[in-house]
## 1
Amino acid sequence: MGDRVTDWGPDIIQIDKDSSIPIYAQIVERVQTLVQVGNLKPGDRLPSIRSVAEHLRIDYNTVSRAYHDLDMAGTIRTARGVGTHIANGVDEEVIQRTRQTKLESTVSTVIADLLELGYSDDEISAAFERIISDVERKD
Amino acid sequence: MGDRVTDWGPDIIQIDKDSSIPIYAQIVERVQTLVQVGNLKPGDRLPSIRSVAEHLRIDYNTVSRAYHDLDMAGTIRTARGVGTHIANGVDEEVIQRTRQTKLESTVSTVIADLLELGYSDDEISAAFERIISDVERKD
Amino acid sequence: MGDRVTDWGPDIIQIDKDSSIPIYAQIVERVQTLVQVGNLKPGDRLPSIRSVAEHLRIDYNTVSRAYHDLDMAGTIRTARGVGTHIANGVDEEVIQRTRQTKLESTVSTVIADLLELGYSDDEISAAFERIISDVERKD
Amino acid sequence: MGDRVTDWGPDIIQIDKDSSIPIYAQIVERVQTLVQVGNLKPGDRLPSIRSVAEHLRIDYNTVSRAYHDLDMAGTIRTARGVGTHIANGVDEEVIQRTRQTKLESTVSTVIADLLELGYSDDEISAAFERIISDVERKD
DNA sequence: GTGGTCTAGACCACG
DNA sequence: GTGGTCTAGACCACG
């Protein structure tokens, strides 16, 4: 763990410039999810604002605002001259619990949305099984 | 078909005022989904702009903008002094196909997102089956 | 092509505030005609919403609405913080065809209107030839 | 001359309910043109508001407003119990002059518009001659 | 009552 | 500076 500097190419963070969701909000959302799910660990170093801006081809100020919001939220810690790191305070057990919660809430939400649109549970099940088994076949 | 007036309480259209997705876009998106999926049929009457504004506690102009965009997109037809109705032109067969496509793309997207966050296909399957069987039990 | 900034004084876009045709619709119509006819090319930059509003002495929101509709129609592309440009996608061949169609439909319509008002084809021809030869003399 | 009651079916007056030009304004415009051009003569009786509304399938009040505006403009005279007639005051000579003026201004305007859109006078002439000779052939 | 347009002004996001 | 959204309120057209 420790000091991996993930260099955020379009692989780690995809942003959609045409989305009505502000770019800075997309970044904040994404980083928080990666932390909650355990893909970014406390102490991991984040790439510099300038490098993120360059890789994602967006403005410095936009990234700066995202980092600022993440700092406010306690997700990251910025220190002058040291760089930016994922904050401590989220211990492994919490992460595991959050990881599970996140999975369930995501699945629950999508199922609820589909039911509300009038799909039957059988239709949903069938679609799900077809698609997940496609994925398994690829492994 | 015909003249069912869907009364859009916060039930039919939920909007999230804090979302970064513009309110008018949320309304447009929602109505288009309901039409695509067959929950709103050609000829169905939509509630008046003023009543939607009141129910959702948003400004007349915001709803008006949503209706205007839906009109431009061909989803609805408005008539001075008369009201607003779902436009013709989407035949039943297309709806059935879209309905299926929409289901699959929704499920695919959520699965892809979860895999990308590092969940295994087994974890996803397990969560899905647990939740969908809860739903079936309620029937 | 490229980046010509058309500065829309009252020269390029004339709007008639007293017309019963909405101002925003006049702007939409005008820009679409200029594109269809080839006077505005893909990539050309449009003047900013604020500058159009100022030149035409109308409200920012009215121009904004016109640009929004043009964007939805695929005629232009707007980008946050960057500006507005004529969209790609209309190839030269289509423009030439549209150009010709537009000319013919305009002439046909005016002739039909005049005939319906009781002018004879000889009267119309005579008037047309007199006026067009005035124009040619000026060249 | 005198008392022809032209019963305004869609033949005499075409209105476009989807136009952004108000229906009442379309009626006013049309009647004034017919008078200016000599197709409606002083003393000619106009159909009743009720009958126009019925024939054009529009609201009584809309026609009423058009008649009111025409009255204000001096184009028609409404007298209780007598009906509505084209007003006097436009003598034959004026009509002939207006008729000619109207023709020329219509043709001039369309030519100017087309020139401004970048059509050459040769293109315009060619299109005009092709179309007008089509018309003559039909006679 | 139903839809539509416009202005004025506040505030946001991006560069 | 450039685009975008929202509210509040006035006023119009149609039925």
## 2
Amino acid sequence: MPELPEVETIVRDLHSTLPQKVFSAITIHDPLVLRQPGQEFVRRLKGRAIKDITRRGKAVIIHLSSGESLIVQVMMTGQLIVNGLSDRHTRLTFKFSDGTSLLYKDQRRFGQLRVVAGIDEVKYFHVLGPEPLSKDFTLEGMRRGLLHSGRPVKNLLLDHSFVAGIGNIYACEILFRSRLSPKRLGRRLRRNEAEAVFKNIRKVLKEAIRHRGSSMRNYRDAAGAKGRFNERLSVYARAGEPCPACQKPIVRIIQAGRSTFYCRHCQK
DNA sequence: AGGTCGACCTGGCAGC
DNA sequence: TGCTGCCAGGTCGACC
């Protein structure tokens, strides 16, 4: 589910409520989402205070007073809800010493949580590319990545070693804004086309964060509310609907096993 | 070495 | 109603 804008929204919400709270009890309703033994998970959290909440790619990093970190990868359907109502999708309940709580809900149970001493213990972070909204992400760096790749630009945007945090929704939207066919090969992009992609990566992600992300089905922010950006999507999940620019129908194709939505007329 | 594909899960929806 | 098949925001490991 969540891509960078959704995870960023969750992290900002959590950042305004969780710091200073102390874990007092953890209930494991479903150990499948844990990447370490339940007893160990609880032992390394209990009694620790939350110092900070940050994001890297699509992962939430909860920094603990012990120096360790709780890593949460919500994958497709995970949710972190402050003071929410528990239901059958609640996989973990965290209680804090001030009486408040944090729920981890996850319909499909793809999500993963673990406590680590350092984030380099998590394989996901090893190959993660630059954060698109940071100064580490540069046009020249991105062009270098494009130049030696014979893959379609859509697949590159989805590759988190190329750039972190972009998923299927925003890859489609970024290419629509750039008026570029998702099938175009990375190394065949002209300089001005690469520039358009670079600018639109940042523009689309920032805009989506401003609207608190896109809720297709399961995404919710830390208060349990939906994002509003899906109303503004131009092509994603709009097969058969008119292109907002030319009114010709949006088409759906499959690339690397994932749906791609685009306008054949506008995106060349 | 780089890239694609199925597996991991649950559930909603369309079609019959 | 109930079945089947398809689809879903992600990531990993097996395989080509």
